[in-house]
Amino acid sequence: MNPTEADASPNPPMVTSHTPAIPSVAEHGHDDAGNRMFGFIVFLLSESVIFLSFFTGYIVYKTTTPDWLPSGVSGLAMRDPAINTIVLVSSSLVIYIAERFLHAKNLWGFRAFWLLTMAMGSYFLYGQAVEWRSLPFGFTAGVFGGSFYLLTGFHGLHVLTGVLLQSLMLGRSFIPGNYNKGEFGVAATSLFWHFVDVIWVILFVLIYVWQ
Amino acid sequence: MTNLSVEVSSQIEQPLPGAPDNWKRFFGFSTDHKVIGIQYLVTSFFFFLIGGIFAMIIRGELITPEADLLDRTVYNAMFTMHGTVMLFLWTFPSLVGLSNYLVPLMIGAKDMAFPRLNAVAFWLVPLFGTILMASFFVPGGPSQSGWWAYPPVSLQNPTGNLINGQMLWLLAVAISGVSSIMGAVNFVTTIVRMRAPGMTWFRMPVFVWTVLAAQIIQLFGLPALTAGAVMLLLDLTIGTSFFDPAKGGDPVLFQHFFWFYSHPAVYVIILPIFGVFSEVFPVYARKPLFGYKVVAVSSLIITGLSSIVWVHHMFASGTPGWMRMAFMATTMLISVPTGIKVFAWVATIWGGKLRLNTPMLFALGGLFMFVFAGITGIMLAAVPIDIHVNNTYFVVGHFHYVIYGATVMGLYAAFYHWFPKMTGRMYSEGLGKLHFYLTLIGTNLNFFPMHPLGLQGMPRRVASYDPEFAFWNVIASLGAFLLGMSTLPFILNMIGSWVQGEKAPKNPWRAIGLEWLVSSPPTVENFEALPIVIAPPYGYGKSDPLVANPEALEVIHEPN
Lengths: 211, 560
Prior knowledge:
Chain A is built from six helices and no strands. By secondary structure, chain A is mainly α.
């Protein structure tokens, strides 16, 4: 929908829970922000099936492959990935605080905590890169190497996407009045960030804890 | 209500670059769901013809027992591309096109929830179609591993190039998946959130229910295929070992990923056709759809069951015994909601005042052949029979009855039924009936012989065969050429009628439904005022009005 049409809608776009008893023409088909959020949640549900498929594949490989670890590899170190996990998971709380600040119309508070989220996401990516460099096996080192890099790499792409989306939203916060009438982009980015976190927790348990 | 009319008049004064008489809108980036629907339909029909040419080349090879027409590698490429084109470039996009055109009209919306996303999803179709066709021009030719691309066959890369037929195939399928996910998000959001006032769930036409059911399958199924395709692409290009048994990989896992999507994909194809049957039969039998609520809900039951049947494609892939038994049971279970629908359609037609025009004939023919395919489907679900006829022409015959017999016939029924609505013109009934009889005869000549051939043990995907199979193969080939010819009256009818057919009124079939309350073709925004729905669908034989404001749906334009 083009923005002029959204502007013309008689009701504020963020009112989604309000359902009138008598159907009125104006209530229907104009709630763009609500539609986008709904569509985005549907998309995330679908996206989670890709991860679910990779996880299933990992479990199958882990339980059936005779020579699971490549020769010379005894397992994965836990310490650095655990720190990474703590950083990423706590960034979910930080982005939530940023969102609360935006709701309270405190733009600088929003920007500060939003930037902190981005820093934590970037630290996670950096930690991931450091770990990759230190590993003695590569992508083509058997099924283990393949699934390790596939899972962490595919998840890392999502973290990168999240950080890029966050920088976009941060930039848009400097457009005067941009977040006055609802903040679909911020809400969606935040939801995406929580999604990426939950996926990482499962991934961490599967790859690092279950060795 | 008063400020509504103000809004309406301001819309009319805008210049309308997408006005229905402007043909150029079909060749650009239009965001009108009706234009996109027709773009999908025409594009996919073009690829249907290409896939049909591949099919006729295959049948030309098989008219004699020896492999004398084509090189065997070309033959392999032909059946691979035939299957891929027919599924990813004909049945999926044509049904998405039909759904695109009809769903907003049927639920009383002005457009889809995300019109731009809709347009992007469409333009990906010609893109991946081109990529797939480009694989004819790379060294080594197109993929030869069949439409299911099982490793290790699909991992062979005899030319050693990075850009090879299999790689382009995977790229095309991946883009097709992106396009389908975009479409599915759009459809589900539109159906859940954009329904007109009073359009409750149980006032939606069954077609909308079936589109919802089919698109939910895309959402949970396609990601699994994407996951498998990504892993296969990595194996093929950078040398990982997910599916390569020589390097410790598990090729059967790919089969699981593939069929977890690609069996439900059959329901993505057939469910909207069930919707078409449910729309067409009541109109031409002048009776309400029998058991509307049960028919509607059984679509979602099919969606649920479709996610737990995929291993029946793998009974011969070394699956454990318990798995075979479990999936045999679930597969047979899915015939219950399907059977409910068949009985509902028969009960709808039963005792009706039948009007046997072209769409009704196609729907009846499609239903008849669907029942036949259902019977062979139950046979194939039984593990002992499946093991026996696995990878034979019996399987090929079965799914061609589903996909050609039921789906293509159902699509034709839909094309003729909604042609007046889409184009504002009437089609030629004589050419339509000629098209129907040629298609009916051609389909059965082509695909029935595959059943005895399969039971006798003729394997699929072979360029040469034992001369004892020659008789049925000649008949099948003649049927294939007849089917090829059968598209000619259709093309003539569609183009000729669109250009100079008789003008169509709003509702030439006296059908009940929101799409029939607006002019043919509908205006850019479908409804000037959103319809207020006050009755369930299929009110044939009753006199209840469908909407409270029929006169407000369209405003007669005064020339300025």
